[in-house]
Each structure stands twice: as C-alpha cells, then as structure tokens.
Design brief:
It contains 8 helices and 2 strands, in the order H-H-E-E-H-H-H-H-H-H. With 234 residues, the protein is mainly α. It has a two-stranded antiparallel sheet with strand order 1-2. Helix 2 packs antiparallel against helix 3. The relative contact order is 0.13.
C-alpha cells in the first residue's frame, strides 16, 4: 500500500472519528426504544453478507435500517447505527481477520456516509417546503447513501489496484443500485407502518430480511446468467 493510499485511509478514519465523537457529544434521542430496535436490527441484518459477483466487496441488508434511521431518528442516532452496521459487516465471519486499518476505514466510511445522508436528505426536504413524503425522503437518502459509500470505497480500491477511478466506481455502484432500490422500498414500508408492538416489529423485520436475502440471491443469479451464456456460446 502506497504512502498516498495510507494517507487517504487514515484521513477517512480521522473524519469518521470526528463525526462519531461529535454525534455522541451532541446526543439526541426523542425515542430511545425506536433507536434500540433500529440499532439491533441493523446489527443483525449486517451479519447477512452477500458477495457481489466479480467484486471483493460485500453488501448486506443493514443499510435498510440506516435509511429507516434517516427517516425516523436524529442525525446522531443515524451515525451510530451506520457505524455499528459497518463494523459488523466488516468483522462478522470475515474470511481473513481484518486489520485495524480496515476496521477503522469501515467505521469511518459509514460514519461519513450516514452523517452526510441524514444531513443532505433533511436539508433538501426543508428546501422542498418541508415535504413529509417518505417516498421522496427515502429516495434521496438512498441515492446519497449509495453515492457517498461507493465513492469512498471505490477510491481506496482504485488506489490499491491502481485502476481507473471511473471504471472502478461504476462497477461497484452499478452492482449495488438494484439492492438499494429494493431496500428503499422496504424502508418506505417500515416507516409508513409506524409499528409499536414488539411482535409486529419482529414479524416485519423477519419478512424484510427474508425478502432482501431472496432479492440479493436472485439478482446475483441473473448477473451470472449472461456469463454462463457467453461460456456456452464460446
């Protein structure tokens, strides 16, 4: 890893730490129960990782609960949930134990992506005369979370592999778009449902994770089909 790559990685980690410390220092929680449920579900969903075909990166349904926290919770709560989701995805059943640098980079990336997503989303919502349309809010949140996350990750991948940035970013982003669209729809259902009982929350959580897992696997199967066709044709 080059000196410039290390500098970039440590810069992301430093910014992430600053955002997390700022969030904890200014802690705000109007509904502790909602925060606890969203945090627990984000952590659990982040253990269900799926490797994207042709890429080393993984994706998990944990981002759905980051989107839900953007719509329902405060900026500080969203940052904490995003960081927890990123750490679990990085550490849970990793093929090789991640280095402290990789762990810090995963946490820093999600702190930046989560904080930026919440700030930009509600800033735009306020500019749109205080719209309360959850579909619009979650649509913006999904785009910001996807773009910010993939930009940070693609940059480090590009630096390590010394590949063209546009090609690396496009390959990562395009593969993630269908998952974020599906996750955004499920997040919209969650927010509109306004669940309060533990049984109904647990039921919808189970259904959401199951549907996302099925969606992930089906999309990956379809992604492999063109390659199989080309092999047979060859």
């Amino acid at each position: 890893m080059t000196k410039f790559t290390l500098t970039y990685a440590w810069t992301i980690i430093a910014i992430g730490i600053a955002i997390l410390v700022s969030g904890v220092w200014q802690w705000q929680s109007a509904n502790g129960t909602a925060f606890g449920v969203c945090l627990a579900l984000a952590v659990f969903a982040s253990t269900l990782k799926l490797k994207l075909t042709g890429l080393e990166e993984t994706i998990s349904p944990g981002f759905v609960f980051v989107l839900i926290s953007v719509a329902m919770l405060s900026w500080t709560e969203t940052v904490v949930i995003a960081v927890a989701s990123g750490l679990v995805q990085c550490l849970w059943r990793a093929k090789t134990p991640p280095s402290p640098l990789q762990i810090g980079f995963a946490a820093g990336t999600m702190a930046m992506a989560g904080g930026l997503t919440h700030g930009v989303t509600w800033g735009l919502a306020a500019g749109m005369r205080g719209t309360d349309d959850m579909a619009v809010i979650l649509g913006v949140a999904g785009v910001v979370l996807l773009v910010s996350n993939t930009l940070i990750v693609s940059t480090i991948v590009c630096l390590i592999k010394e590949g063209p940035f546009e090609m690396v970013w496009r390959s990562v982003q395009c593969r993630a778009v269908p998952y974020y669209l599906a996750g955004g729809l499920i997040a919209d259902v969650w927010v509109r449902a306004k669940l309060t009982g533990p049984t109904s929350i647990a039921l919808l959580a189970a259904i959401s994770v199951y549907l996302l897992s099925m969606c992930f696997r089906e999309l990956e199967r379809l992604a492999w089909q063109p390659q199989a066709v080309r092999l047979r044709a060859g």
